[in-house]
Design goal:
Blueprint lengths: L1 H10 L11 E8 L6 H9 L8 E9 L3 H13 L5 E5 L5 H15 L6 E4 L11 H7 L7 E6 L10 H21 L11 E4 H7 L10 H11 L3 E6 L15 H14 L4
Parallel strand pairs: 1-2, 1-4, 2-3, 5-7
Antiparallel strand pairs: 4-6, 5-6
Helix pairs in contact: 6-8, 6-9, 8-9
Length: 265
């Protein structure tokens, strides 16, 4: 019954009496990740969610190279139950990929308690943290969202690169909190969880095509009165040499998005 519901969800078909609710939609943007994509998806699919939840990955190929695209096509063809899948003809950025995935989640949602979470395809995050994030999400009709927090005791890493990364994220988070009135510790964390009901409210405000989407999501949530709480998550950062794509220009863009949000009602 669960597998039949998952097949119908992936195709966008009504699931009728076979619907297993609520569903956690996992939006995974993918760009040039031929060596990590399969592992990330396998981790997501192996997660044991709290009782009553089912899981539905939504893959978004953001104009990847041929090696990654071939890997994605092979996985999608072999998937049973089927995987929801979107593809951009050219690379448009993580923000654009998330917007495509969010729109697909809204189209597939069937239950008022359905929720959406973001999952990167680079193995930096552990999907087993979904459980803690879901447990922190307030049930309907409360308006809440949950952000992961990488900067807690058990995930602290040493080294100058780690310190610079953490200080940069702290600066952006403080600026975001000043602009939005939210009180969070890690605005840039990939793991952001909210109900589909909340997503419908904020999606029209999401326009950033690259990593500026992170502070824009925080600003959009604050603008519609969503309470944001946090849950600690694991984090295994990789280097630029290993394929990390965010850079200094993205930090500057994030500051611009934060400043712009202060002047929007």
């Amino acid at each position: 019954m669960v597998r039949r519901a998952q097949r119908e969800l992936a195709r966008g078909e009504p699931s009728g009496t076979y619907c297993v609710v609520p569903t956690l939609f996992v939006v995974m943007p993918i760009f040039n990740e031929p060596t990590t994509f399969r592992g990330s998806l396998a981790r997501v699919q192996s997660v044991v969610l709290p009782v009553g939840w089912t899981l539905a990955p939504i893959l978004v190929d953001d104009g990847s190279d041929s090696a990654t695209a071939s890997e994605i096509d092979a996985v999608v063809r072999a998937a049973d139950p089927p995987l929801a899948f979107e593809r951009h003809a050219v690379n448009r950025g993580k923000g654009a990929a998330l917007q495509s995935g969010f729109a697909r989640a809204i189209a597939l949602a069937r239950d008022p308690n359905d929720a959406v979470i973001i999952q990167d395809a680079d193995l930096e995050y552990d999907p087993n943290d979904f459980v803690a994030l879901l447990n922190a999400l307030e049930p309907a009709p409360a308006k809440s969202a949950v952000f992961g927090n990488r900067w807690h005791g058990r995930s602290t890493r040493t080294g100058w690169k780690s310190r610079i990364h953490r200080r940069g994220n702290r600066l952006l988070t403080r600026a975001s909190n000043l602009a939005t009135g939210l009180v969070i510790s890690d605005m840039e964390c990939c793991y952001k969880l909210f109900s589909v009901r909340v997503l419908r409210e904020i999606l029209p405000a999401l326009t950033e095509n690259r990593f500026g989407i992170e502070p824009q999501i925080a600003a959009a949530l604050a603008r519609v009165g969503v309470r944001v709480v946090e849950a600690p998550v694991s984090y295994a950062p990789r280097s630029l040499r290993a394929g990390k794509k965010i850079g200094p220009r993205d930090g500057i863009r994030a500051l611009w998005v934060i400043a712009r949000s202060m002047f929007r009602s």
